[in-house]
UniProtKB/TrEMBL annotation:
Pfam families: HNH. Residues 18-82 form the HNH nuclease domain. The keyword Hydrolase applies. It comes from Pseudomonas bijieensis. GO terms for molecular function: endonuclease activity; nucleic acid binding; zinc ion binding. This is HNH endonuclease. Keywords: Endonuclease, Hydrolase, Nuclease. It comes from the Bacteria. InterPro entries: HNH, HNH_nuc. Gene3D superfamilies: 1.10.30.50.
């Protein structure tokens, strides 16, 4: 059952597109919500649209019939997405952002 939920919700291309479209409308760019990384700025315009879409509510906590809202999703670069999932209790996007900023300020 969880595999089905994973495939349907996490791989929902329409939901991912809506989240990306929302970010483009509001910010004009797709960038990591934790560190600000922008794939197309770094690697060129041919990679426009490359970014991970993270579920802020773990899929295993959702009840049958729950709907994923755009506010339940976050745009993350692959590094920050991996850091979010690096602990058994996920770090929040805000926690990863704080850690990134703290490390950047030390440098």
């Amino acid at each position: 059952m969880l595999t089905h939920v994973h495939r349907v919700r996490e791989r929902d291309k329409k939901l991912v597109k809506r989240k990306k479209d929302e970010a483009l409308k509001n910010h004009g760019v797709l960038q990591c919500e934790a560190c600000g990384f922008n794939f197309s700025k770094t690697y060129g315009p041919d990679v426009d649209g490359v970014i991970d879409v993270h579920h802020t509510k773990p899929l295993h906590t959702l009840q049958p019939g729950d709907k994923t809202k755009l506010a339940d999703l976050a745009l993350l670069c692959a590094n920050c997405h991996r850091v979010v999932h690096s602990r058994r209790k996920w770090l929040s996007v805000a926690e990863v952002k704080d850690r990134y900023q703290a490390a950047k300020n030390k440098a």
